[in-house]
Batch of 2 targets.
Target 1
Amino acid sequence: MTSNVNIRLPVFLRRIRERRRLTQADLAQRCGVTRTYVCSIEHGRVVGPSIDLIKKLVDVMSLTPREGAALARLAAQDRVMRAVASELPERAQRFVSVCLEADRLLPDADVDTWITRLEKTVQERTDFVVHIQRDEETTMT
């Protein structure tokens, strides 16, 4: 299992389309978009589809509520990851990706526990750095 969320939307959409025995052209025509656009989504070349298109995809492919929710979540994750890709260093992108996966996979109570632990750790490190900086300022004067 890869931690790269951007890969998941294209693979998920292609697999569902193929299971429904639809070609890209068939799906595109039924959703009112071009075949090239469907191809671009399936190859990860464009940002996740809009909510309106997701609704059309759900209807056209007769997705179950679970599949529809997964498609919507993956499209949202794709948009988030593409937005942070230009703003954050690679380590931070990986961190965001792992957080999105944890939120998807873990029960809410576990996610809340991890968030609380992370917030506490960050606060402890911040306090430590501030303490060191104060000591250095005191030593310099």
Note: Confidence is low (pLDDT under 50) at residues 1-6.
Target 2
Amino acid sequence: MNAFLFAWNPEKWPWPDLEQDVKDLEETGLFTDAWSCASHKAVREGDRAYLIKLGKEPKGIIGSGYISSEPFMGKNHRGQPRMRILVNFERLLDPNKEEILLLDVLKSGSLAAQHWSTQSSGIRIKPEVADELEDVWQDFLRNKRKG
């Protein structure tokens, strides 16, 4: 399975419903959203998806899930035509209210081989980084629940 990184920068694209989307996911176990996908020729339904918050601090991973559609032509948040995909999120964190997996962690060890501060959404995560990211993310979520 491949893994892809989707980028959100609140300075470029406000997400006014984020708090409600997080609650909906916690209550129903389902939140699906469309994202632009630079690697649309490589992405497949069932691939792993991670969402990174960029822009102002805190920066880091705020969500994960699985790609749930084939790529399709749609419009981005500025109304421009872009190849898009749907992501079924299994975890989504509100960086204004809770701790996220910080960019500093992603820039350390073997994870540093990946470019995290991407200008494009939907880039492929290097295969040698993807498994390590999954382990670090799951450890982070387990420790977050304990704390």
Note: The beta strands are 3-8, 31-36, 48-53, 60-67, 72-75, 81-92, 101-102, 123-124.
